[in-house]
């Protein structure tokens, strides 16, 4: 954390908010009305930001407002600053009102729920009884973005080439890919199935996240003729396509932890083996409270002990 006595730029959060709102609405009158301020006050705040940062941020004409190249480059950082400030302010309010320890925000991709529940909430509640805990489930791409922007404190997700260098990574376990098929499928008798056996089969995968990218990259690198005939958003839709004999589904094994269906079976894929690495991730640069750090270390040590066992 930076020393609190270090000199900060002569900008307020309100001024940053004015710029972000103007960038969203692209209209001075609408922005001033939304913020309940006068247009001269908005113009003055914008001039102050441009003076401190040393460059022009917007182009203003009689009919429209557009961002300059510098303004567009600065906007994501300004939005992140406001998000972090709002989250910290919300935590301070909760502590003052409830006498609690604030809020811990944990992100996760849906498939890792079997690793977290019910053990993780119970573990945190036992050690930090006044802590408010939020769980945010989302795609892996969204998880990485929220970690970068400081919207969540840490997250459980999958590693791939899209993970930015700004994140601190702690691998937890491998999650191999499997295929879901009907039990009466001729290939269902095998416990392990080569990928090439799925050539010319209709395949269902998730449309979002990194699963489809991993499967496509494997097919391309090994010259496998795999056709993703169905791309869906939800697990039950994926299973429904298999039950209807319309496709077989490819997904990581953790998704099948709670699969209980007499019509379906799970077969491991091999030749080649494909797995994704599940990891505990957080921003490498974001400052955090001692309490959040204690929570992170507690869970990290718990998972590392499980890995060794």
TrEMBL record:
Keywords attached to this entry: DNA-binding, Repressor, Transcription, Transcription regulation
Keyword Transcription regulation (UniProt): yes
GO molecular function, one term: DNA-binding transcription factor activity
All copies of domain HTH lysR-type, residue ranges: 11-68
Keyword presence, Transcription regulation: yes
InterPro entries, sorted: HTH-type_LysR_regulators, LysR_HTH_N, LysR_subst-bd, WH-like_DNA-bd_sf, WH_DNA-bd_sf
Entries under SUPFAM superfamilies matching the protein: Periplasmic binding protein-like II, Winged helix' DNA-binding domain
Pfam families in the record: HTH_1, LysR_substrate
Top-level taxon in the UniProt lineage: Bacteria
GO CC, alphabetical: cytosol
Stated family: Belongs to the LysR transcriptional regulatory family.
Name assigned to this protein: Morphology and auto-aggregation control protein
Source organism (scientific name): Serratia ficaria
Gene name for this UniProt entry: oxyR_1
């Amino acid at each position: 954390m930076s020393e609190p006595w270090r000199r900060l730029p002569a900008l307020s959060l309100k001024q940053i908010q004015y710029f972000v709102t103007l960038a969203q609405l692209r209209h001075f009158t609408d922005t001033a009305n939304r913020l309940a301020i006068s247009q001269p006050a908005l113009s003055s705040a914008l001039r102050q930001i441009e003076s401190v940062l040393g460059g022009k941020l917007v182009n203003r004409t009689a009919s429209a407002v557009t961002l300059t190249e510098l303004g567009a480059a600065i906007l994501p950082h300004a939005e992140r600053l406001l998000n972090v400030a709002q989250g910290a302010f919300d935590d301070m309010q909760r502590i003052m009102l409830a006498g609690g320890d604030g809020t811990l925000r944990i992100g996760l991709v849906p498939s890792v729920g079997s690793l977290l529940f019910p053990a993780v909430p119970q573990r945190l509640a036992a050690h930090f009884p006044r802590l408010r805990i939020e769980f945010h489930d989302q795609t892996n791409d969204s998880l990485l973005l929220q970690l970068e922007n400081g919207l969540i404190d840490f997250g459980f997700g999958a590693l791939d080439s899209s993970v930015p260098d700004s994140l601190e990574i702690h691998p937890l376990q491998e999650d191999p890919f499997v295929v879901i098929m009907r039990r009466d499928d001729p290939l269902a008798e095998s416990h392990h199935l080569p990928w090439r056996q799925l050539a010319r089969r209709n395949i269902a995968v998730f449309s979002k996240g990194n699963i489809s990218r991993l499967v496509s990259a494997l097919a391309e690198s090994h010259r496998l003729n795999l056709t993703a005939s169905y791309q869906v958003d939800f697990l039950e839709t994926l299973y429904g396509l298999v039950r209807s004999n319309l496709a077989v589904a490819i997904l990581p094994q953790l998704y099948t932890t709670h699969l209980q269906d007499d019509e379906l079976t799970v077969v491991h894929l091999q030749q080649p083996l494909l797995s994704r690495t599940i990891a505990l991730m957080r921003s490498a640069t974001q400052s955090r409270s001692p309490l959040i750090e204690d929570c992170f270390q507690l869970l990290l040590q718990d998972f590392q002990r499980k890995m060794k066992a």
